[in-house]
User: What shape does this take?
Amino acid sequence: MDIATWIGLGTGLGTLVTAIIGLRFVGRQLREQQRTLRAELGNLYIERYWQIDDDLLLERKGSKRHRQHRHRYLRLFEDEFDVAKLGFLDPEQWRAWHGVLSDEGARELIRDDLRVCDPKGDSFRRLRACITQRERDGADHDVRHCEGNYAE
Assistant: This one.
C-alpha cells in the first residue's frame, strides 16, 4: 500500500470515530432531555395534587364544589395512568404513586369518589381496572402488570 491509501484509511477511521463519539453525545443529550421532561411532568402532577388537596380542604364536604374537586382528583389519577403508559413519567415516581392504591383506606376513598362522581361507571376506566385487579388478586401488584395500563 502506498502512503495515499494509508492516509485515506486514517481519514476514514478518524471520521468514523468522530461520528461514533458524536452519536454517543447526542444519545446522552436525548436521555437527559427525557429525564428532565419526566421530572417536569412529575412536578406538574405534584403541584396539581396539592392544589386539589388544598381546594378539597376549603370546601364543605358534600357540597357541589367539594364534589367537583373530588372529580378533579379522579381525573388527575386517570391522567397519570395515561402519561405513565406513554413513558412520560419517571418509572420510580409512578411506582410510588400507583402504590398508594395498595392501601385499603385509600382504595375505599377512591371507590367512594367514583360512586359520587361517576355513578354510571363509564369514566375512569384505567383507575377502575387497577382497583378491580387489586380486589381480585390482592391489594399489591406490580405497576408493570397493572390492568389499568391496558384499559381503554
Remarks:
- Residues 38-149 form one domain.
- The helical segments are 3-58, 64-85, 91-99, 104-117, 125-137.
